[in-house]
Specification:
The protein is an alpha+beta fold. It has one domain. The protein is built from eleven helices and five strands. It has helices spanning 20-23, 37-54, 58-62, 67-82, 85-89, 93-105, 108-113, 116-125, 131-135, 178-194, 199-209, and strands at 137-145, 148-155, 158-159, 164-169, 172-175. Strands 1, 2, 3, 4 and 5 form a five-stranded antiparallel β-sheet that branches. Strand 1 (137-145) and strand 2 (148-155) form a beta hairpin. Helix 4 crosses helix 6 (93-105). The longest helix is centred in the first third of the chain and has 18 residues, at 37-54. It is globular and about 55 Å long. Mean pLDDT is 82; it is low at 1-26.
Length: 214
């Protein structure tokens, strides 16, 4: 993980028309129900985020995240900036990995100067996320339940490990990274145990395998 976990978002599926020959042998398939206002709003925030990432406007993408997501990402940024062992130790493993990765890829001056939006801009400018991840992302059917929504996240036409989560906040629908971070923590803990290493030792091993990209 060389970048903040922003890899999120967009979709819009173009309905496929029945070919003319098929219409002569069977009736057309029933039309899919029109998306609800909430489903359209969720798809719109996803589209805005993907457009912002494609245009390297990281701060704009950060503004489309849920308040809880921003708080957790800021905790990573603050831990990276301070380098304090106690603060780093309070982070979950995937978040600690991200904080230590920031410390390896950014100077102390940059860490003090950049806010979360600035870090996102820097990550996109340096291609930490990778342009293909942004271009190949798509959103599957959206399911809205109250103030939460989920959708299958597709990358290069294949389901991603994590789904896309959304949360309705006073400012509107926002992308929620809570489950993405939780799954990352579970994976890192599991791989550390499989390799008979402590979390810190496994994190260090992973970081040493990733080239520094300033």
């Amino acid at each position: 993980m060389r970048a903040l976990p922003l890899a999120l978002l967009l979709a819009a599926a173009m309905p496929m028309a029945n070919p003319a020959w098929a219409q002569t042998t069977s009736p057309p398939a029933p039309s899919a129900p029109a998306p609800s206002a909430d489903e359209r709003a969720v798809a719109e925030v996803f589209a805005k985020a993907q457009s912002a990432l494609a245009q390297r406007r990281g701060a704009t993408a950060v503004g489309l995240l849920s308040s809880g997501s921003v708080a957790r990402l800021n905790a990573i940024r603050e831990a990276a900036r301070s380098g304090d062992g106690i603060r780093l130790g309070k982070l979950e493993p995937a978040e600690r990995f991200a904080a230590l990765g920031l410390r390896r890829n950014l100077s102390s001056t940059e860490l003090r100067r950049l806010d979360l939006g600035g870090l996102a801009d820097h990550a996109l400018e340096k291609d930490w996320l990778g342009p293909n991840v942004i271009r190949q992302a798509a959103l599957g059917p959206i399911r809205v339940r109250g103030d939460r929504a989920t959708a299958l996240l597709m990358v290069n036409n294949r389901p991603a490990i994590v789904q896309a989560d959304f949360l309705r906040e006073p400012a509107g629908w926002r992308i929620d990274l809570t489950n993405t971070l939780m799954i990352g923590n579970q994976f890192l803990k599991g791989f550390a145990a499989m390799n008979n290493k402590s979390e810190d030792a496994y994190i260090e091993e992973l970081l040493n395998k990733i080239p520094v990209k300033k």
